[in-house]
Amino acid sequence: MDSVLLIYKGIYILAIFGISLLIATYSTYFERKIAAFIQDRVGPNRAGPMGLLQPLADAGKLFFKEEFIPAKANKMLFILGPGIAMLVAAMSSAVIPFGDTLIIGETSFDLIAIDVNIGILYIFGVVSLGVYGLMIGGWASNNKFSLLGAIRAASQNISYELAMGLSLIAVLMLSGSLSLKVIAEQQTGFNWNIWYQPLGFLIFLICAFAETNRTPFDLPESEAELIGGYHTEYSSMKLGMYLFAEYINIFVVSAVMATLYFGAYNFPFMENLRNAFDDPVLGNNVVTIIGVAVMFAKIFAFIFFFMWVRWTLPRFRYDQLMKLGWNILIPLAILNILLTGGGILLYEYFTKG
Amino acid sequence: MEPLSNRRKNVAQKEMTLSERMYLPAIAQGLGITIKHFFKKKATINYPEETRQRSDVWRGLHVLKRDENGAERCTACGLCAVACPAEAITMTAGERKKGEEHLYREEKYAVTYEVNMLRCIFCGLCEEACPKAAIFLQDDKLAPARYERDEFIYGKDRLVEPLKTTETK
């Protein structure tokens, strides 16, 4: 019994790892395609049908490029930087529930790699390690632009992680649990957290942009001012790893937002669908499979939104970024906590007397 | 100061309203504009597969025309070479022998006729100078890029209009 579960977990973890790599790969393609469409162009369309093999061509190109390490760079840290960025990005999708349970025979399989009761804390901890990748890379390059990019990355991530955590606390007050699985289960049907936490979601969304270093908060790698910031000196697949890690982070943050605010794998009328089947096992499995599809649809919608925003907004100035983070988002997040607390108290006063 | 024209506008730095300071309405507006472009018809012309429609008077690669019987019209009079401002055209004249009437229309013809495409400025003056309507600049072809300079000197082999097989005797 235990060995079945162990094998299942192994396969599941590999599958999630593969899926997140695949999504990151094709994010580069869709990024270019969406950029092109927004700018009235057609985008990559030469490699394969509709340019679908473009990511492979890009990866091949990156592999064959010269691996350049600057003479005065700290060699070990220089190689460690992209490694950490990539490792940490790939680790963070472990606690996200991509679906409910599948029942095969007598055993039920949870569609989640590790169900830890501190899921969201785990994600925060791992994601904030990601900034070490950028900092080490920027520092080891021994280049002023890289260092500036690294400093910007560090201070930006610290500033926005505060507001992000505070906006999250309001959700935790509603759910009473740190486990992403529990949070997902509480939002059955159409009872999504976004209806209770619109302000919190907005703050979380803005912070998510800053955490993943996406436009309008892509100051660490602003090519206009810093020639690429922390990855100025990187070439070949080490550069590829940094870019790849960014896309995996987008995928993970999209998944977290879908789980926390948009009901994860829940969709409207799922209970009606479940009860429509005579066989409860079959009903459960059908709902679960549709739920997985719904979850990925939500994730893709968020990834699209990330790209849509990137090709709409210009970059913030650094002082504007700091002002927005500390003077506006953090007070708003605290206000949101107060409002949520008041709301919960009122609700309990009127319902429980 | 006295205004020089009535176009002058007084600009004042107004205090931004709350909705302007929130930026979010403006961001939503911007996202609306970009998503509109997302679904717009694309401006791209996929070049090798599609080509842009050229103007009727567009001047491309030269062609030496044949007459209705398939004989070359050019008589090597040299007016095109004289008219050419870039001095791109050279030719040598020859006399038509007996039995070559189906090849050359007049008694004199061009043994060689060369246009240097690196010198040519595609002005079309040769076309205007020609009294026999022999040389034209096509509107659908252009001199392609090549690796060697020699390859840009187009001789009769590449300039003369190919024979239409149905009309040959």
From TrEMBL, chain A:
EC numbers, comma separated: 7.1.1.-
Subcellular location: Cell membrane; Membrane
Enzyme category, top tier: translocase
Record membrane topology: Multi-pass membrane protein
Pfam families: NADHdh
Predominant location: membrane
Chain segments annotated as transmembrane: 6-29, 77-99, 119-141, 162-184, 190-210, 247-267, 287-309, 329-350
UniProt entry tagged with the keyword Transmembrane: yes
Alphabetical UniProt keywords: Cell membrane, Membrane, NAD, Quinone, Translocase, Transmembrane, Transmembrane helix, Ubiquinone
Family, as annotated: Belongs to the complex I subunit 1 family.
Description of how the protein assembles with itself and partners: NDH-1 is composed of 14 different subunits. Subunits NuoA, H, J, K, L, M, N constitute the membrane sector of the complex.
Purpose of the protein: NDH-1 shuttles electrons from NADH, via FMN and iron-sulfur (Fe-S) centers, to quinones in the respiratory chain. The immediate electron acceptor for the enzyme in this species is believed to be ubiquinone. Couples the redox reaction to proton translocation (for every two electrons transferred, four hydrogen ions are translocated across the cytoplasmic membrane), and thus conserves the redox energy in a proton gradient. This subunit may bind ubiquinone.
Protein name (database record): NADH-quinone oxidoreductase subunit H
UniProtKB/TrEMBL annotation, chain B:
Domain of life per record: Bacteria
Cofactor(s) named in the record: [4Fe-4S] cluster
Keyword Chaperone included in the entry's annotation: no
InterPro entries given in the database record: 4Fe4S_Fe-S-bd, 4Fe4S_Fe_S_CS, NADH_quinone_OxRdtase_chainI
Topology in the lipid bilayer: Peripheral membrane protein
One Pfam match: Fer4_7
Catalytic activity annotation: a quinone + NADH + 5 H(+)(in) = a quinol + NAD(+) + 4 H(+)(out)
Intracellular or extracellular location(s): Cell membrane
Gene3D superfamilies: 3.30.70.3270
Cofactor note: Binds 2 [4Fe-4S] clusters per subunit.
Broad class of enzyme this protein falls into: translocase
Binding positions ([4Fe-4S] cluster 1): 74, 77, 80, 130
EC nos: 7.1.1.-
Domain 4Fe-4S ferredoxin-type per the UniProt entry, residue ranges: 65-94, 111-140
Role, per record: NDH-1 shuttles electrons from NADH, via FMN and iron-sulfur (Fe-S) centers, to quinones in the respiratory chain. The immediate electron acceptor for the enzyme in this species is believed to be ubiquinone. Couples the redox reaction to proton translocation (for every two electrons transferred, four hydrogen ions are translocated across the cytoplasmic membrane), and thus conserves the redox energy in a proton gradient.
Family from the record: Belongs to the complex I 23 kDa subunit family.
Complexes and interactors: NDH-1 is composed of 14 different subunits. Subunits NuoA, H, J, K, L, M, N constitute the membrane sector of the complex.
Name recorded for this polypeptide: NADH-quinone oxidoreductase subunit I
Species the sequence originates in: Pontibacter amylolyticus
Gene this protein is translated from: nuoI
